[in-house]
Amino acid sequence: LLATSVSASVTVSPSATAAAAVAFGAIVPAPVSAVPAAGVTYLITAATAVYSEAPEVGEQLARQLRRSTGYPVPIVTAPPADGITLRLGEVAGGDEAYQLDVTATGVVVLANRAAGLFNGVQTLRQLLPYAADAATVQPGPWPVPGGRIVDRPRYPYRGAMLDVARHFFPVGAVERYLDQIALYKINYLHLHLSDDQGWRIAVDSWPRLASYGGSTAVGGDPGGSYTKAQYQEIIAYAAARNITIVPEIDMPGHTNAALASYGQLTCDGVAPPLYTGTDVGFSSLCTSKEITYTFVDQVIGELAALTPGPYLHIGGDEAASTAPADYKAFVDRVQGIVTAHGKTVMGWHDVVKATPLPTTLVQYWGSDPTETAVSTAGRKVVMSPSARTYLDMKYNRRTPLGQTWAGLIEVKDAYGWNPGAYLRRLPPEQVLGVEAPLWTETIRTPADIDYMAFPRLPALAELAWSPYATHDWTAFRQRLGAQGPRWRVMGIAYYRSTQIAWP
Ligand code: TNX
Predict the structure, then answer these.
(1) Which residue of 114, 195, 198, 202 could cross-link 54, Cys pair, CB 3.0 to 4.6 Å?
(2) Would you call 177 helix, strand, or coil by DSSP?
(3) Please, what CATH class does the domain formed by 166-472 belong to?
């Protein structure tokens, strides 16, 4: 039945072969096409080698396979007769597209760019037995079901957001989340770096932002902030996983931590106390003071210099303590500052009340499909409708964590909408993608993140990646359920939704 080139001592049980066949139809996000080759299996053995034209992508794959299989998995300098080949060449569908072929003698992933090879490897991981993602050596065997997958993303922006301001998450916790979301081909991580309750990034020209403004968190929990080196470590870790960091400094509201650190940023010159509650809309930078724009220019300048990605997010949400005319003047001027530092402005959709630049990327967080202001602004939009994508909303009344203001969001609610058609007045071609925000007023640990993000984050990742023609709840609840054992192997403390067909 199996390839003859494998070492004679290795046999694959019928149940392992059956499991492999299931895996071919259980990839999340669903690929554009996946055609199994009946009876064909490649078996990873002690003889398997890896060749890669994107060195970092090949190294990562080999490292993981060594860890779980215990095989040597050498990196070789030419496509091996028995092994995994990651090759640059021409495939349809752009930088992130890939084609994956599994035959009896090996796996070949073909892509235009390293990003496509990375995506193909994430698919390959899901074709392997779950144990391949383990951190320690597992028994095997290691069959890969035969066939061909042709794949490319629906949207170029497939994001997650982590609020590190309400609660601070150290570098290791962010890297853990990056590892988890990369498996689902998420390619942007938006870091909400400042809010009323904490300032989380070192700024040399305004050092009290981090040292004082970063000292608190919601509920009096420990604060913290990233040094510049740590922020760059996160960026590099993300880049190795095809993920671009989008830093956010929220303004003019959500700024109590900055105002508490520097009283000159308030209109009366008096610094308010640090804040550890969860109200919104009570703070504002003083938009009529020139020092405010010096502050913004220096903060944005330092952050832009550290950030290789194209976007710098200026927040702009819930500025209830800023007069409308002041808000407009402030946002318009800040857009110029961001542009002067070479970055593209991103903002919560409140910024359409100002004059968004033609290039400003608008992040929609409402839940009104009939709204018009965002839809007619003529700008590209990232869809984060709160009633569908907010990972801090409870699944149901009994969910121990989270909030309810945007509704209860079970997995079926997170999955059951079309990002291209949610806003009825928004031309579908203006949708750049989807982002799943995780606000952390009630989220304090990596296990809390796991529980709120899984399984909804993979559902939203599928909406962002897969052709809408694959959208089918009945099939999805099976495919998503098949991910559960992998999450256990990876140590993800996911929510066992009763809506999902767990194996
Ligand atoms: C609204 S949505 C906020 C955040 C809160 C979140 C809690 C948005 C742009 N702002 O400040 O953390 O609700 O769910």
Answers:
(1) 114
(2) helix
(3) alpha beta
